């Protein structure tokens, strides 16, 4: 047995003089397979730690046995990785003064693929941040780094044979439909180091350095080179490998052209040389539009020659042919679940992202699979339900959702479950521009993923994980890592009206055990504000403001729900133009129920009008003074058809027949592509007496030139109407 200790851990074990600590629950993440605490504490410094590898004691190369007793600590691993993980556990057990509980731990991971992805194509991140990212992954026992190097407009890897891939590494969308992509020439400095949206790439020296850095942390780097789609940068730089009928930079390679395969095989050859440790080359192969192939004479000729019945089988032909070359280079091929279309390549591994189904199909057919379902482990999705969250993509994957992730589905046949290698989470960076934002989206969800992939289901416990996470966040802070406090932010879990008209609101936070303080006058709650217990009963107009506290300090974001029990609350609503049945917001009371939508377009509180105006009338029940109207609308140009209205108008009436226009205002256009919720306060010049209030928001009609969905009907989304 060889005894040594990693230099990376020596600095963690400095000793300070202090009294013996009070017993407390061990906060090890991920939870070990077996842990027995003896009840006493000992002082551990670097001179009292023995390490070694012994496969007769621990069979799994990533497993370890940790024993802490009066004579110090011993870590025995089944391999160097096991020793590494055992030392991490010891470091988590130890307090700042060197005290460690006497304990015996036997541990090994449930899955051998515990992965984390990073998209550097949409936004480039410099080499030093990639190393920091690897440090964060290693701390959570993630052993696969899926490096998404090419996609769409960004090619981030130097290829000697094809220098234009990085000489034209940046691309800009223009509004001329005849020339939708234009290459930008970059200076050497910006080409190498820019963290801007478009610039930057990694040299081969960068890659070798990063791969070695990962290897030292027992992380395997899996490169992804997208094909046959998502390749706008490559097909602009080398248009001869796109279909001859396609526009420049169309993004899809031509499988009817033999030179396309020569081009990609030469790229693969250089990639294989750069990633000697990687058992796989990831080809993506997702979301490939087939329209170009249908109109391409070369592709149609290929289909006739090969006896392919449709373009799905043509994609399968492409994937099979590339797999043969990848296999010949000593690597296996992995791709997203679309590689199942038209028949799976013989030795391919499936990465199932659209859900679990692709992985289930692959495993039951005898193929290996990695589960990456977007509605569990896409970390570019929101992790909180508050407008303070930075712009994200898609739905909502909070901590409990990530923690519940289990790659092994019951639909998989019992004798095929070994084909599930494990799982991973993905971070796509369409909306993520900075390293700090990446870390925010990663942490602390990575802790939940780590336990989901390492710990056996019998040892998982959400309540215990919550308690452990409190100390984990302190560890993040000590390391200077930027983590999200979304789990502390209060949200409205339930609300309803009592028969007497009072509004009952129930609040929750994802992480329990933290006090919530609130006010009803709109002021910011302090630690002395009203303590939330089981619900809040609101009997008169109010603005509910709430926040959680951790260790006596504010934590997370502030929840603010304005205009509760306003004049429009529960008013009768009639619609001159109906809302779309796909976005009802909850029906005819959706806009007067005091329920506010989040900035995700899929929030069920939004009420949507497709191609038509929002035109509705409120019956307030009796004539009363009315001073104005407030409402808000969603816009998200980058990925939806939802646009701000072009005009807002308000009329009032005492009898419901004769209306007087009191507001008529043009809405200033805002071409910001990021998601926004825009409020509009439509105060009258003077209060009027009215029972009926009519509100119209004019729909843009058709999406303008330059919009990603130009020519399609625009939508208007709103979620609440307030009457003062």
What does this structure look like?
With 724 residues, the protein is an alpha/beta fold. It is 22% helix and 28% strand. The strands form 7 sheets. An 8-stranded parallel beta sheet has the order 12-7-6-17-16-15-14-13. Strands 25, 26, 27, 28, 29, 30 and 31 form a 7-stranded antiparallel beta sheet that branches. Strands 1-5-3-4-2 form a 5-stranded mixed beta sheet, covered by helices on one side. Helix 3 packs parallel to helix 6 and helix 8 packs across helix 11. The radius of gyration is 29 Å and the shape is flat. The N terminus is likely disordered.
Shape: flat
Residue share in helix? 10-25%
Unreliable spans: 1-17, 169-197
Please summarize the sheet with the most strands.
Answer: 8 strands, parallel
SS-based structural class? alpha/beta
On the 0 to 100 scale, the average pLDDT is 91
Q: What is the end-to-end distance?
A: 78 Å
The number of helices is: 17
Rg computed from alpha carbons, rounded to a whole number of angstroms: 29 Å
How much strand? 25-35%
Strand line-up in the sheet with most strands: 12-7-6-17-16-15-14-13
Please count the beta strands (DSSP E, at least 2 residues each): 31
Oligomeric category: single chain
């Amino acid at each position: 047995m060889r005894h040594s200790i990693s230099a990376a851990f020596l600095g963690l074990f400095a000793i300070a003089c202090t009294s013996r600590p009070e017993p407390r629950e061990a906060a090890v993440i991920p939870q070990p397979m077996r842990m027995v605490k003896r009840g006493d504490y000992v002082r551990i410094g670097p001179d009292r730690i023995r390490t070694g590898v012994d496969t007769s004691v621990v069979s799994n190369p990533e497993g370890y046995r940790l024993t802490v007793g009066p004579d110090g600590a011993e870590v025995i691993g089944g391999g160097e990785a096991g020793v590494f993980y055992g030392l991490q556990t010891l470091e988590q057990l130890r307090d700042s003064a060197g005290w460690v509980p006497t304990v015996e731990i036997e541990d090994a991971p449930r899955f051998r693929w515990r992965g984390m992805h990073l998209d550097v194509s949409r936004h480039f991140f410099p080499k030093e941040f990639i190393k920091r990212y690897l440090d964060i992954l290693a701390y959570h026992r993630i052993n696969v780094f899926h490096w998404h190097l090419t996609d769409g407009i960004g090619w981030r890897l130097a290829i000697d044979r094809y220098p234009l891939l990085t000489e034209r590494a940046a691309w800009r969308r223009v509004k001329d439909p005849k020339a939708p992509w234009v290459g930008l020439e970059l200076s050497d400095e910006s080409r190498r180091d820019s963290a801007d949206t478009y610039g930057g790439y990694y040299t081969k020296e960068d890659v070798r350095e990063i791969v070695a850095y990962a290897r030292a942390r027992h992380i395997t780097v899996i490169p992804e080179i997208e094909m046959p789609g998502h390749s706008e940068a490559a097909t602009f730089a080398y248009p001869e490998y796109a279909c001859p009928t396609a526009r420049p930079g169309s993004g899809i390679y031509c499988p009817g052209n033999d030179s396309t395969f020569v081009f990609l095989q030469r790229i693969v050859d250089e990639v294989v040389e750069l990633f000697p440790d990687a058992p796989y080359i990831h080809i993506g192969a997702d979301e490939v539009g087939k329209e170009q192939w249908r109109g391409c004479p070369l592709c149609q000729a290929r289909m006739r020659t090969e006896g392919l019945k449709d373009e799905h089988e043509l994609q399968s032909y492409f994937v099979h042919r590339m797999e043969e070359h990848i296999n010949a280079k000593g690597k296996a091929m992995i791709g997203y679940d679309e590689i199942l279309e038209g028949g799976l390549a013989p030795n391919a591994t499936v990465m199932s992202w659209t859900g679990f189904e692709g992985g289930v199909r692959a495993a039951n057919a005898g193929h290996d699979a990695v589960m990456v379902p977007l509605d569990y482990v896409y970390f570019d999705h929101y992790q909180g339900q508050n407008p303070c969250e930075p712009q994200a993509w898609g739905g909502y994957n909070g901590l409990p959702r990530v923690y519940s992730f289990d790659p092994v589905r019951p639909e998989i046949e019992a004798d095929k479950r070994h084909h599930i290698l494990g799982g991973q989470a993905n971070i796509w960076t369409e909306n993520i521009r900075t390293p700090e934002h990446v870390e925010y989206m990663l942490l602390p969800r990575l802790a939940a993923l780590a336990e989901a992939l390492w710990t056996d289901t019998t040892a998982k416990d959400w309540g215990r994980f919550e308690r452990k996470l409190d100390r984990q966040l302190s560890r993040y802070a000590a390391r200077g890592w930027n983590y999200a406090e979304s789990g502390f932010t209060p949200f409205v879990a339930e609300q309803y009206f009592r028969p007497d008209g009072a509004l009952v609101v129930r609040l929750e936070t994802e992480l329990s055990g933290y006090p919530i303080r609130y006010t009803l006058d709109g002021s910011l709650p302090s630690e002395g504000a009203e303590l939330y217990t089981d619900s809040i009963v609101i009997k008169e107009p109010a603005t509910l403001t709430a926040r959680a506290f951790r260790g006596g300090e504010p934590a997370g974001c502030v929840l603010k729900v304005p205009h509760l029990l306003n004049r429009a609350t529960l008013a009768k609503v009639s619609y001159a133009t109906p809302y779309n049945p796909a976005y009802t917001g909850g029906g005819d009371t959706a806009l007067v129920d005091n329920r506010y939508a989040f900035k995700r377009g899929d929030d069920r509180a939004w009420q949507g009008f497709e191609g038509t105006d929002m035109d509705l009338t409120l019956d307030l029940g009796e004539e009363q003074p009315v001073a104005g109207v407030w409402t808000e609308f969603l816009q998200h140009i980058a990925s939806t058809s939802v646009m701000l209205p072009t005009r807002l108008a308000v009329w009032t009436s005492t009898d419901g027949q004769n209306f007087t226009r009191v507001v008529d205002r043009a809405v200033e256009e805002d071409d910001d592509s990021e998601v926004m919720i825009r409020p509009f306060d439509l105060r009258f010049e003077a209060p009027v007496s009215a029972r009926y209030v009519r509100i119209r928001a004019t729909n843009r009609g058709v999406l303008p030139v330059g919009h990603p969905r130009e020519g399609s009907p625009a939508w208007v989304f709103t979620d609440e109407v307030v009457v003062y």
